[in-house]
Specification:
Number of helices: 19
Largest sheet: 6 strands, mixed
Radius of gyration: 26 Å
Strand content: 15-25%
Number of strands: 12
């Protein structure tokens, strides 16, 4: 949906699409014979050093497909890439299935410059990401010695394993070691294959085939490791300063059908300058959103007044900030608002224990005026 209007503007100049449906696996097999050989046959070293233009994220986990777990890692990576100026081209969610993992990582490694996988690297039987990716690129699994040293140093013993010892060969120890048995290419420099982006974490990031980075599915770890990789990625970006891509939001009360002709014309006009124009309906709300996205911030800024005029809109920093309900909510919690004072009075009268926090001299009352909420003492 990112630039639907740009696509409409170019629609009639494109060849007719092929509407025959192909699965990802069959499409990959078909492409295998005709894909540009320089990309398919690129060495791991070349993939590991070329300029990063495109990115993809592969979420691996039955728990995501089954609705037990909500994926937030792909959204975090999308924002990460946007800020750095990488074009996030694909997000896929697949099962803990060896064949699916093999097909997906091979295809993504061929098609995108920077690939991140999430999930399936824990200590249990259903964590099969390492072994599947090793098989995808015909690599053995090897215990990584530095990761083992770091694991012993930084991992904390579980309260329910008081007798655990790294020196005793036990089922628990074997399970832990599964997490550092990594796909390894003996012909390549180990430092390029196994990264430790966060100094005080033992968790490694295995980099396979030069561009497939294997991360854990736990959001806190995923986010920390991804951010830790930033210094390694910056020199390989189109813009080494990592200024990223810019987005301008314009709120309009007009329906999409009303602004479509102007936005179609605008999209065709600014596309040669690398700007994408987007239009997003906000169902149930009185205002929709128009977006301008591109790398040239100065040029984007030069378009704002024109777009505001033509869509009868105004620029906003956050989508929805000018909604009526939001305005009402803001008014309700201002320091002098009647609602806030009534709430404070009610709490103090009805809940004696709350007086320390909500009385006129209490911490919460004072700090609500400044917009901060301290922890109770």
């Amino acid at each position: 949906m990112f630039s639907r209007l740009s696509q409409v503007a170019r629609h009639f100049s494109r060849p007719l699409p092929n509407y025959a449906h192909n699965s990802a696996a069959s499409r990959s097999a078909a492409i295998g014979g005709i894909m540009t050989s320089s990309r398919v046959n690129a060495s791991a070293e070349e993939r590991n050093s070329r300029t990063i233009h495109t990115a993809a994220c592969l979420i691996i986990g039955d728990e995501v497909l089954g609705g037990k777990t909500v994926d937030t890692n792909s959204a975090y990576m999308a924002k990460f890439c946007f800020k750095l100026g990488m074009a996030m081209k694909r997000v896929e969610v697949i099962a803990d299935d060896e064949d699916e993992i093999i097909e997906a990582v091979r295809r993504m490694s061929n098609n995108y410059d920077f690939v991140v996988t999430s999930g399936g690297i824990g200590p249990t039987h259903d964590d099969i990401t390492y072994q599947s990716i090793a098989k995808a690129f015909s690599l053995p699994l090897k215990l990584h010695e530095e990761a083992y040293v770091r694991m012993k140093k930084f991992s904390k013993p579980h309260p329910n394993q008081p007798n655990f010892s790294w020196d005793v060969d036990s089922p628990a120890r074997k399970a832990k070691l599964r997490m550092i048995e990594l796909p390894t290419d003996s012909s390549r420099d180990d430092a390029k294959q196994v990264l430790f982006p966060v100094e005080d974490l033992w968790v490694p990031v295995a980099c396979i085939n030069g561009n497939v980075h294997i991360l854990p599915g736990v959001p806190r770890l995923f986010e920390k490791l991804l951010e830790g990789m930033k210094p390694l990625l910056l020199p390989r970006l189109t813009d080494p300063d990592g200024k990223g891509i810019h987005r301008i939001l314009i709120s309009t009360p007009q329906p999409e059908s009303e602004v479509a002709p102007y936005l179609t014309e605008l999209a065709a006009r600014v596309e040669p300058k690398g700007v994408k124009v987007g239009s997003y309906p906000r169902w149930g709300m009185k205002r929709n959103t128009v977006t301008l996205v591109g790398r040239d911030q100065e040029f984007l800024e030069s378009l704002v007044a024109e777009v505001e005029k033509n869509v009868d809109g105004r620029r906003v920093l956050v989508e929805g900030e000018d909604d009526e309900k939001v305005k009402e909510a803001k008014e309700c919690v201002t320091p002098n608002s009647t609602i806030l004072k009534s709430l404070t009075t009610c709490l103090v009268r009805e809940l004696p224990l709350a007086r320390g926090f909500f009385s006129p001299n209490g911490a919460y009352f004072v700090n609500m005026s400044s917009g901060t909420w301290p922890e109770p003492k």
